[in-house]
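Possible regression after last week's pipeline update?

I re-ran a chain I had predicted before the update to compare outputs. Posting the input and the new output here so someone can diff against the archived version. Not blocking, just want to make sure nothing changed silently.
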Amino acid sequence: MEELATIEREIEELKSKSKSVYWNDEIILKTLNDCANYFFDLIGGESCYFYLASSRGKEVEYEYVISRKIRTGITKNTDQIPNKVISSYLGKDKQNSIGWVRLTYSDANGFSFTPADKKRLSDMAQIAALAIEDFIKYANNAIIAECNQLAVILAFVRIIEAKSKWTLGHSERVTNVGVMLLEAALGDQEWVMSIDQDEVYKLERWFKFAGLLHDLGKVGISDALIDKPGRLTDEEFEKVKLHPGIGGSLMDVLGLECTKAIVPMIEHHHENYDGTGYPEGLKGEEIPPGSRILKIADVYCAITEARPYRTPLAHWDAIEEIRRNSGRFFDPKLVEIFCKLPFENLDKKVEQATQQGEPKEEGPSEEQYVEDPYHIPSIRKYSVYTKK
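New output (post-update):
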């Protein structure tokens, strides 16, 4: 099962990152930007260079350049020896540093640093190093937390796998079709603008897991009902209708960060666009975007798959069925996008993903830790922030 293999690879990659010093771009950039502005305010400078080593004296990891606009033509202090560059290790000394920092002025202005500025930078760099290391610990803890979340998801998917051959194959196929629809929908400006922008990240990061787990609640439903060869009675159908809520409850009780995104998608994937669905009878855009996508993918896969109680529909018959119920069961805009999907590429996509195997990891830079803090190594990652 390719989706399970994907989750397993993600877990292994996260485990690998959590065992080493790992720079989280968003967190580190914010921290370095704050530190640079602190240096600018108390010392001065036009540009602030941060060089960070991946693990104390080993390979180069990142260099950041943070700059600001300053007034030119004003001499700060000409009594001292002019100095356009000062630098310090980020730590007590080279052996205990996580990199170095450097403040510079360009030759186009009359500012210069003093020996007192150099001492002040050294003292402040030690404080900055502690702040950076604290944020690294925070980032690594976040990685471990995400790894644990994926491990729980993998365990739940294994539970579904053991439940029924119908449920297993169906959940994987719903995920594949749903991801295709999601990718197409995110490329449609009209649909993207119709949803809350906070939903975009949730959909991109967690939708495939919601797809794999959308029938998790069926573990609480009798096998006799799930695999019943004939039509369900009204009483039996009421029991089956409990499965979205059961699945959401199983995920929600864990209190994981990912459940905030996944649970609504699972609980409402049987809502109808006209408000006649279950469990809450949500209508139109009240239904979470992920649930509306799952609804179409789930129905398409269900009616084109063999079941003990019926024969499958052909692809184009299923497409016509979904088009006929646009606005009734399904989001009309998503139906429009869905009917244009290249379904003939679906099997090819799965096959290619299987053949590709595990992705190649980028090796560390060949560049060594900088001996001279005045030397600038080749930039592997370059970011510029400006402060007026």
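Follow-up from reviewer: compared with the archived run. The beta strands are 47-53, 60-67, 85-89, 99-104. Marking as no regression found.
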